[in-house]
Specification:
- This protein is mainly α.
- About 55% of the residues lie in helices and about 5% in strands.
- The protein contains ten helices and two strands; from the N terminus they run ααααααααββαα.
- A two-stranded antiparallel sheet has the order 1-2.
- A hairpin with a 3-residue loop joins strand 1 and strand 2.
- The radius of gyration is 18 Å and the shape is globular.
Length: about 230
């Protein structure tokens, strides 16, 4: 029994170390934030997005911490972490491979747009929107990959974001955060992959040069059409 526990610990440690940098940092921040809430070190109220406190009392950290809290330890938290880990890693190791700065820019663009939309949707925690955004971007770039959803149904990846919405409904959760993530993901996908290919279209989204040096100095490259491929796995 002890040997099995040790082997599992070693496997998890190896998996964590082998996880690409952006995915590892974000996942770690989410888990530590949830642990801090569970231990009573902070309260959800101190982490939530509140425009009044952000812009009038300069509690700037709320612009970040509201993306790190997925709720208390529960089945829903576990599902969100699993999807975040899987699809964030797939993106970073796939179409964003050796393009860390571009991947960080996706986070910045997505987080900024979610924050704006969150004001109008009256959402104080937007962390659950992030997995939805990442899943949407991945599903549009890999639309025909077969997905085995939670082990009981199979469909093409293009339908996965809507499968998550349906799953939220089954759990009795609000689908607002899921829809926000889909809207932001579609906006990014359209501006990055679709618009540049249209007649008269151009590349609207450009990763700021200041991101390249801290992200390893990777050179700016276009993600289309190399990243926009339909795989047939």
């Amino acid at each position: 029994m002890l040997n099995k526990s040790h082997a599992m610990a070693v496997s998890l440690t190896r998996l964590y170390i082998q996880t690409p940098a952006v995915t590892r940092v974000y996942l770690t921040a989410c888990v530590l934030t949830t642990a801090a809430v569970q231990l009573g070190l902070v309260t959800p109220l101190q982490l939530s997005f509140n425009p009044q406190l952000v812009f009038r009392r300069w509690q700037i950290w709320r612009l970040i911490t509201n993306f790190l809290f997925f709720g208390t330890l529960s089945f829903g938290f576990l599902i969100n972490i699993i999807f975040l880990f899987r699809y964030c890693r797939l993106l970073e190791e796939g179409c964003f491979r050796r393009r860390t700065a571009d991947f960080v820019f996706l986070f910045l663009f997505g987080g900024s747009l979610m924050t704006v939309l969150g004001v109008f949707a009256d959402q104080v925690f937007l962390g659950q929107s992030f997995p939805s955004m990442l899943v949407y971007v991945w599903s549009r770039r890999n639309p025909v990959v077969q997905i085995h959803f939670l082990g009981f149904c199979s469909f093409q990846a293009r339908f996965l974001p809507w499968g998550l919405v349906g799953f939220s409904l089954l759990l009795g959760n609000s689908i607002v955060v899921d829809v926000l993530g889909i809207v932001v993901g579609h906006t990014y996908f359209y501006l990055e992959d679709v618009l540049p290919t249209q007649p008269g279209g151009r590349q609207v989204l450009r990763t700021p040069m200041l991101l390249f040096q801290p992200c390893g100095g990777n050179c700016p490259v276009s993600s289309f059409p190399a990243a926009f491929v339909e795989t047939t796995e």
